[in-house]
Amino acid sequence: MTVVDEIGHIPRAACPACNAAPAAIWAASGPRPGPDARIMLSLPLAHCAACISTVEAALQAVPGVRTARVNLTQKRASIEAAADVTPAQLIAVLAVQGHEAHELDPGLLSTTETDRQGHELLMRLGVAFFAMMNIMLLSVAVWSGASDATRDLFHWISATIALPTVIFAGQPFFRSAWASLRAGRLGMDVPISLALILASTISVFETWMSGHHAYFDAAVMLAFFLLLGRYLDHRTRAIARSAAEELAALEVPRATVLLADGHEEERAITAITVGDTVLVRPGGRMPVDGVVINGASEVDRSLLTGESLPVQAGIGTVVSAGEVNLTGPLTLRVTAAGKDSSLHRMADLVAVAEGAKTRYTSLADRAASLYSPLVHLLSFSAFGYWMWATAGDLRYAINISAAVLIITCPCALGLAVPAVITSASGRLFRKGLLIKHGTALERLAEVDRVIFDKTGTLTLGVPEVTDLAAHPVQAVAVATALAAGSSHPLARALSEGARLAGVQPAPVTDICEEPGQGISGQWQGMSVRLGRADWCGATALPVTATYLRLGDTQTHAFAFTDRPRPGGLAAVQALQAAGLQVELLSGDTAAPVRDLAQRLGITQWQAGVMPAEKAARVAALTAAGHKVLMVGDGLNDTAALAAAHVSISPATALDAARVASDIVLLGQDMAPVADAVRIGRQSARRMVENFLISGAYNIVAVPLALIGLATPLAAALAMSLSSITVSLNAMRLK
Amino acid sequence: MEILSILIPVSLFLGGVGLVAFFWAMRTRQFDDPAGDAARILTKDWDDRPKPP
């Protein structure tokens, strides 16, 4: 698909005169007060200080640009410019500097721009950290023997710092605890909130009574470590979400509408209605469902059906949104647009399947559902026992039950999963994999079957000529000369193959392209043609091929295969070595599927599979107790992607397929898929280890607390040690 | 022990300065692009004079 996409980007910057015109006006009139336009550009290749300087300098040199700032973390540039500055103009300027840039839809990105929730959490984290450090300083003095008035003074100072901090920093926990209580559940946040409130009130009371133990440091430390876990969790999600939004924002949805007076107008897809006439240029993707009313071409349906052979399209052909127009311009009458188009209907199906997926209970949820009742039970029974044993000493009993709550409080538990996920998704991001879903890693660890799609997934969807050497050099030279005049993917592949083989094009004259048929010309007094089999009078081969006719009788067939994606073999072998069964399901015809399966060592393959059959196969395997990893890119895979236990799609996939999948493969290489499974298994193991570690600390500390031997020092030690051990364990991931 | 009456306010004040600095950094969005800020220090663009506002 990449070749076709690239063609699609070129025409916008094609007219230098248009780009120069606004500049001339601007120079004449000086800076105009006008509405500023905000333009967002994606800079996928920006990576260093020099990139920032060149991009910002180049953008700022464009007349009309007020400010330009590169964000290297998000690999984006945001530009404020006069309304007449177009993104295409800026992209062209950056292309001259050697920087690839794509337009982003700022409307879709607004939510990540001001990440309020993240800022809020970070603010609370900072406050908790400040309070923790100051109170710890005072507490160390108390632990090392400050007594009487000094101890009370220190406790009072701690209280004045701790109480506002707990009220401010604890809000996220109080809010979610209240929400879960109202829903009648005992979430993880209920014991946390209870511990925070109980520890603070008890400590104030003890300070008032000039008691020995105050738990201000424990309360604040608890808030700090839990907020840290929460912030890590939030950041992983925010990064994934902003990247996913960026992928969506890359496809700025516009179409060229032909007006009744013959003029063309660029319009947003949402503004197109049924009955409009839309022009689709070669290389462009169909923006709507429609019927061809003018023009002849070939369309690539591989994203919708998985077929690798282009289909001929002429007047009366029905096309659906998402197909790619290959050779000639097509004029469509719109039959369905926007929400009604087939592309959108498929996306709706995906949304339904998505809903089913969120029912997966994560490891953390399962731990919480076990943990919170246990904690409450322990704390209450300690209270009851000591009430009975001390014959009604309320102060002592409450003190003990608070100590139990504080010590069992899931500090390490709150960090156990987020720390592992942060570490793992960072590692996977560097390998070119983007985790979109928080529980994707855990689900990946459980997978025992892998299903691959062929076209666009294990192959690049880019043809490659296979049998150039089997033809006489002269025929190849003529074919090369003809192919040079066309942008059809097969013609381009032929030119590329000939160039690599060192064949010089023959002197062919009168080259002329017949849209949807092929290219004709004159060579040594004979008419020559390159194109479809029936047009060249050749017999069609069962594989993807283009045909050459020399004169009236002689024909040659050039066969093509879909270029395999690099790393496919490595990925399949690594997955099989990891004990997973690999399957290949494709909508394509049998011959190319068998060929690829043999090359990759996949024994189980099936060709000509309908989209519903793919989903059915996934459902059947799931019903048989298997956990399926689906890797696919097309619209025909979306249902299967959504139905699978976990799914991966390449970044070149259709929007709907990317939405349906949990992990997006950013690069071309397929090999990281095997890494993802390995890291997924590793991180699930780390999560369990982390739960065990925090459990082990509790097993030591809880009995101490229950028999009334836990001091604030013991609580602080258990809490910080277990949190640090858990974080370090998470970072061991490789 | 009288020294405590100076030391404790001083330590709280210094901690408070740190907290205010953190708030200021948050408000002025200085944590938005850590990778970019790390790289920007290496550019020679405004070495001779400060960037005009």
Walk me through the structure.
The complex is a heterodimer of chains A (734) and B (53). Chain A is α+β, with helices and mostly antiparallel strands and 734 residues long. Chain A has three domains: 2-104, Alpha-Beta Plaits (2-Layer Sandwich); 115-250 and 341-447 and 627-734, Calcium-transporting ATPase, transmembrane domain, CATH 1.20.1110; 254-340, Distorted Sandwich (Calcium-transporting ATPase, cytoplasmic transduction domain A). In chain A, 53% of the residues lie in helices and 18% in strands. Chain A is built from 27 helices and 26 strands. Chain A has a seven-stranded mixed beta sheet with strand order 14-26-25-24-15-22-23, sandwiched between helices. In chain A, strands 6-5-7-13-8-11 form a six-stranded antiparallel beta sheet, with no helix packed on it. In chain A, a hairpin with a 3-residue loop joins strand 17 (509-514) and strand 18. In chain A, helix 7 packs antiparallel against helix 9, helix 7 runs parallel beside helix 10 (216-250) and helix 10 (216-250) runs parallel beside helix 27. The longest helix of chain A is centred in the first third of the chain and has 35 residues, at 216-250. Chain A is elongated, with a radius of gyration of 32 Å. The two termini of chain A are 33 Å apart. With 53 residues, chain B is mainly alpha-helical. Helix content of chain B is 58%, strand content 0%. The longest helix of chain B has 24 residues, at 4-27. Chain B has a domain at 7-31. Chain B has two helices and no strands. Chain B has helices spanning 4-27, 34-40.
